[in-house]
Amino acid sequence: MTEVKPATIVLDGQEVAIEEGETLLELAARRGVEIPTLCHDPRLVPAGACRTCLVEIEGWRRLAPSCTTVAADGMVVRSANERIERHRKTLMALYLTDHPAPGEIAPHIVDGSEVHRMAVECGAPDDWPRMAPIRVGREDHNAFIQFEPERCILCARCVRYCAEVEAVSAITLADRGSRTTIATADDLSLMEASCELCGGCIDVCPTDALTEKLALALPAPIPDKLERVRTTCNYCGVGCQMDLEVEREANEGRGRVRRVLSPPAGTTTNDGNLCVKGRFAYQFIEHEDRLTKPMVRREDGLLHETSWAEALETAARGLLGVKARHGSDALGFVSSSRCTGEENYLMQKLARAAFGTNNCHQCAAT
Amino acid sequence: MTRKKRPDIAAALQQAGGLREGASRQVAKDSGVPEAHVYGVGSFFHLLAEPDVELRVCTGLTCQLAGADALLVAARAQGIEAVGCSCLAACDAPVPLLRGREVLPAMTLDDVRGVALEALRSPAGEHWQRAVGPELELDASASRLLHAPSYEGASFAKARALGPQGVIDLIARSGLQGRGGAGFPAGIKWRSVAAQAEMQRYVVLNADEGEPGTFKDREVMLRRPDAVLEGLAIAALTVGAKEVYLYLRGEFDRPWRAMSDAIAEFERRGTFGEIAFHMHAGHGAYICGEETALIEALEGKRGMPRIKPPYPTEKGLWGKPTLVHNVETIGCVPAILERGAEWFEALGRTGAGTKLYCVSGHVVRPGTYELPLGATLDELVEAAGGYTVGLKAFSPGGASSGFLPAAERGRPLDFKALAEVGSMLGSAGVVVLGEGVDMAWAARQQLLFFEEESCGQCAPCRIGTRFVRERLDAYIAARDGGDAAAMASALSQVADVAWEMDEGSICGLGMTAPLPLTSAMRHFPSDFPGSSTGDFPGSAKLG
Fold it and tell me: Which chain A residue lies closest to B25 (C-alpha atoms)?
């Protein structure tokens, strides 16, 4: 048996072993070689549309998108040289002509546009004549997702995410040529489309074309006073990780959650995906009706703050009273879909062992 | 793995009367395709996206020379919902109009002025091709693509006897090159498809002829649908395909009828055994002439070109090996089988075979002329009855080939000689521009075309086509207004953008789109006084 030589490529002068099926972009990332991208997302089928990740492959007449090109044995690849540098500069200069200037971005948007950062990074000329906005938007009365077509660069990450990850396909590339835009069928509101308002489109957008409406209604933030706090979504038992964007000093020092952000894809069990509840239904945190302390209803019919001991004691007494007067099956226990499996287990244990009834249900079980 | 086949939602939208409100939802219900995707497809194709348009006026360069704008104004003046449209492949009979999907060739202002939409009649009648061939005899010197049809299927029988390897060798030896634009050797393509491990293969006819100045495929389909189908059947037999797809542009109503009649005739005779032909209509998108965009459209999607490699020979229609050929190319195949590779090869002068050249613009008899590959402009125009005015410029192979000056009139019109001067034979749609044509104006017409027809997928092309056209507009405005400072600066980014569009675009449309302007600036500097091309280091584009 002769030993099979492992497949390798030469990347920027260094020989690198190939992992079966990986793209040049993945291989470069593994080696710590940074290649800029705009339309790439590890969750999506590579599109090769933004053209920022082009590399030079020896023997290939044209520059090739590293995101779609699978590494093949013997390839000699350059991720940077004069030709690539010129390409990136000119490409980013072109993007700038079709994109609002940094100063035109609403102060509410703290992320800004990846286009501006990338243009500065590669030293693209920013004095080319800007073109008037051409892409048309739609009025959309949905409560959560704002779309500003003139800020869109048509990377189509949102469209592909909606189809490939969420399997919802509420949005599409529409029209063509320089008027190409992102749309729903007949420009319907997202509320009338198949959209589930998961907001993943906002998360994948590399510009400020897609943003959170709820945050737009708040006073503009002070960027360096913003913090990100990793937490677990408590809407169900899946355990999605999410990052709260918090202003600690807002609300007279009580703090405020501005937005819920996705952790980067590939870093958490939920792979950066969230649902409408996790991403947008966070106003309960600061809601005046929210119960934050144990309460008990006294003879006056009103709820009064109390200790946990008294609250539990009162509940137990009430339940046992019903059992004594009407029997165990007069009781029913309904647990919440926000509970974990373990919590649901404990709830049925409580129903059966402590109160002797099988009347136990969970609100998501229907 | 076989991909799930999407139904033909574009055809369903056409049935529904185009992209009217609610049509996407209805088609989505019937087809199972998400309604947003149906809408995305419908909005991509102009014939579907603008259902209320009653009349389209060709605004190709040749038709602009013939006064297309005035016809558009006249039509609108009598209340017809009329818009300009990209080349209708009837440059030999300017100005063609499109009513619904019916082409009305050779319309003049008198035919339009004061006439109601339903009453519009073409003066050219049903058989409107006026000039074909240099009065060619039915002799051995021609591919006979412009002559009488035959349904004998003799070449197909010969191919069956020769076997796949024999046919591939024959095609390779004949030197046949793709006549859709790229000039890729047909033999290599056939061999590549035949060599794939995947046994499900397809043959596709690219009849999405839309390169401005080009109308030869239309003529071949009208005159020799039999040769096209026989060529396709031979190809299918050779590469092991049972299914053949014919993609005709949506504006080809007459070629559609000719092809479907011919399919019916062959089916009646049972000539091609189990090989099945499927016809598919385009819906108004030039880019679908790019083979991978065409395949996307066949699959029921927006016609956006794919990243290559892989090429269709390896992963084409529904991911299977696919042989895609232009009408003229495949039409040459039966004659090669009949008369041999050496006969075909010897027909040409600087390359193999004869070539159907389309010529329009400032010539006496615009039309399709069959000449040896490598004929010159002067020979072609002589066949067409001569120049109507002194020659200033010509576009040798459609809008994508840019412009060449009169000094190149003796250059062989072939794949190699034209590439040497930064142009190309392309589809051999030759447009002749006489003295007095402003090349800045001519370039603008071509830039408008590319801007309109860009698929919008990749940034260099989507942004670049518009940016370059807007820069030219700024220049023309400055020139006409005598603003020297603006004249000097207006075009200063053009060389860089053209370089980037060539380097960075996904497909040939974006790569060549700026060429009409850059070639005009290079060859006709006197039409661009006071301009600066602004070449920063390494900028070689304008030479």
Answer: A185
Determine contact, residues A159/A171, Cβ cutoff 8 Å: yes
CATH number, span B154-347: 3.40.50.11540
Please tell me the predicted confidence (pLDDT) of residue A366.
Answer: 55
- Give chain A positions within 8 Å (CB) of B22: 186
Residue B423 pairs with which residues in a beta bridge?
Answer: none
For the domain bounded by B439-527, which CATH number is listed? 1.20.1440.230
What average pLDDT does this structure show over A192-219?
Answer: 94
Q: How many CB atoms lie within 10 A of CB B148?
A: 9
Q: Does the beta carbon of A129 lie under 8 angstroms from any beta carbon of chain B?
A: yes
pLDDT score recorded for residue B143: 65
Say what the pLDDT of residue B140 is: 45
Q: Which of B21, B36, B307 is nearest residue A171 as measured by Cβ atoms?
A: B36
Q: What is the DSSP string of B209-266?
A: --STT--HHHHHHHH-HHHHHHHHHHHHHHHT-SEEEEEE-TT-HHHHHHHHHHHHHH
Res B306 pLDDT > 50? yes
Give the whole-number percent of chain B exceeding pLDDT 70.
93
Question: ipTM score here?
Answer: 0.92
Chain A CB contacts of B471 under 8 Å are 129
- For the domain bounded by B356-434, which CATH number is listed? 3.10.20.600
The average confidence (pLDDT) of chain B is: 92
| Band (A127; pLDDT cuts 50, 70, 90) | very high
Helix (H, G, I), strand (E, B) or coil at A133: coil
Domains contained in chain A, CATH given: 8-80 (3.10.20.740), 94-216 (3.30.70.20), 223-286 (2.20.25.90), 295-362 (no CATH)
Nearest-CA distance A223 → chain B (Å): 31
Cβ–Cβ < 8 Å for A80, A12: yes
